[in-house]
Amino acid sequence: MREKEKSTQIIFVRHGKTDFPLDRIYCDDREDPPLSVEGLQQAERAARLL
Q: Measured between alpha carbons, how far is 32 from 35 in angstroms, rounded to an integer?
């Protein structure tokens, strides 16, 4: 009987919404904007789903 092959599942999760202005295209390396209330809710939901 053949051994069952093991597979690895990789899940990528991006950060939640921040209070960073939407008109800025990128965030400087020195900046680490906090998550907004909505972003915190998104992160909590992602954690529950994982």
A: 9
Q: Quick check: 13 and 49 in contact, CB under 8 A?
A: no
Torsion sign over Cα 50, 10, 31, 38: negative
**8 Å CB contact between 15 and 39:** yes
Q: What is the DSSP string of 1-37?
A: -PPPPP-----------BSS-TT-SS--TT--PPB-H
pLDDT per residue as tens digits for the range 1-50: 677 888 999 999 988 888 877 766 666 666 778 899 999 999 999 999 99
pTM beyond 0.85, yes or no: no
